[in-house]
Amino acid sequence: QLQLVESGGGLVQPGGSLTLSCEASGRVFKFYTMGWYRQAPGKQRELVATMRADGDKDYADSVKGRFNISRDNAKEMMWLQMNAVHPDDTAVYYCNRALSGLVSAPINTWGPGTQVTVSS
Q: In this model, does residue 101 exceed pLDDT 90?
């Protein structure tokens, strides 16, 4: 069973950068397509990036060209490099299972998430 813990969030100025980390455990990580989800206040959770186990990536239009998803299957780790952030990126970020092509397919148990706040 997959267990997930996100970290790396914080306060960042518009235009700045931040890297989020996802630590997974449960031995199934290497088989799953994984994704980064985010939920802004008053909004539904949305999937912004996915990465297949073989390395294929997809991004939502809102983050394409600014965010980069990466993973290390041996370490059961995943990252989201966030560049050129703007206030609309403010949200709690979660990692979870997904399907390629930005299809949401989370397991039932979510990690605690990590808060990203973009503000000057």
A: no
Question: Sign of the C-alpha dihedral, residues 92, 37, 58, 7?
Answer: positive
Instruction: Look at residues 5, 16, 12, 14 and name the one whose alpha carbon lies nearest to residue 77.
Output: 5
Instruction: Say whether pLDDT at 108 is over 90.
Output: no
Q: What is the pLDDT of residues 5-41, one digit of tens each?
A: 999 999 999 999 999 999 999 889 999 999 999 999 9
Report the alpha-carbon distance of residue 110 to residue 113 in Å, rounded: 8
**31-35 CB contacts, 8 Å cutoff, 24+ apart:** 32/2, 32/97, 33/97, 33/98, 33/99, 33/100, 33/105, 34/71, 34/78, 34/95, 34/96, 34/97, 34/98, 35/69, 35/95, 35/96, 35/97, 35/98, 35/102, 35/104
